[in-house]
Amino acid sequence: VTHSIPACIGSMTINSKQLDKESPVSIFAVKKCYETVQEGTFFDGSGFAALVKEGYKVRSDVNISLEFRTTAAHGVLLGISSAKVDAVGLEIVNGKVLFHVNNGAGRITATYEPRVANSLCDGKWHMLQANKSKHHIALIIDGNLVQTDNPYTQSTSADTNNPIYVGGYPADVKQNCLTSKSSFHGCLRNLTLTKGQQAELVDFSRAFDLRGVFPHSCPGVEH
After folding, report:
1. 141: domain range?
2. CB neighbour class for 83 (10 Å; exposed up to 12, middle 13-18, buried from 19)
3. b/e per residue, 118-138, with b = 16+ CB within 10 A?
4. Strand ranges, E, within the chain
5. For the domain that residue 168 is a member of, what is the CATH number?
6. pTM of the model
7. Do 69 and 221 contact (CB within 8 A), yes or no?
8. Which ranges in 17-154 belong to alpha helices (H)?
9. What is the band of 223 on the pLDDT scale with cuts at 50, 70, 90?
């Protein structure tokens, strides 16, 4: 067994002595148990999850889908970059969702601005789909489609080779398609990256670096 148990543990005794959970000698990625809990991954606004240590290659196409729930108007959702300029990025800025892509010739952005300000930051679940197909990009939020023109039609491949960062990224890591440094505070679920016919559901418990992220549960009501 190489991964922690996604569960709540209480009232543990060893040799008839009850363990004091309130004052542990050390603690890592353990949070209180919630009375009401939802499926998903909780981000406490302080860190990030890092996946695919060997580097994820976006290249010509990728479809990113996820559900998010937050009360914050700012936060990084996802970033995949390279050492050069090629990158993709998803973020919430001032209550809007931005999908950035740079295939090497310049950054283009699809922006979804809700009709009612901050209605995406209402603590309810919202569906997001971001699609890059060669030089075309599209963003679908709760069924609403946003497309943007790309003047760099000859440049079609985002040659990324860095890990996937979700919910934020380390201070020493360069992200060419993110404008925000704010870590996401809220819950994500059903994060899937699809290339062609191959869909990959992200399991956050398999992240190689997890800071302020709790993979298998979301508080039903945030406090």
Report:
1. 39-219
2. exposed
3. eebbeeebbebbbbbeebbbb
4. 13-14, 17-18, 37-38, 41-51, 61-70, 75-81, 87-93, 96-102, 107-112, 126-133, 136-141, 144-148, 164-166, 185-195, 198-201, 209-214, 218-219
5. 2.60.120.200
6. 0.87
7. no
8. none
9. very low
Identity of the residue numbered 168? G
* In-domain check, residue 135: yes
- Euclidean distance between the first and the last CA atom of the chain, given in angstroms as a whole number: 33
DSSP for residue 117: T
pLDDT, tens digit, 9 for 90 and up, residues 145-190: 999 989 999 999 999 999 999 999 999 999 999 999 999 999 999 9
* Sign of CA pseudo-dihedral 173, 179, 182, 183: negative
What is the rounded CA–CA span in Å between residue 169 and residue 123?
A: 23
179 located within any domain: yes
DSSP label at 17?
Answer: E
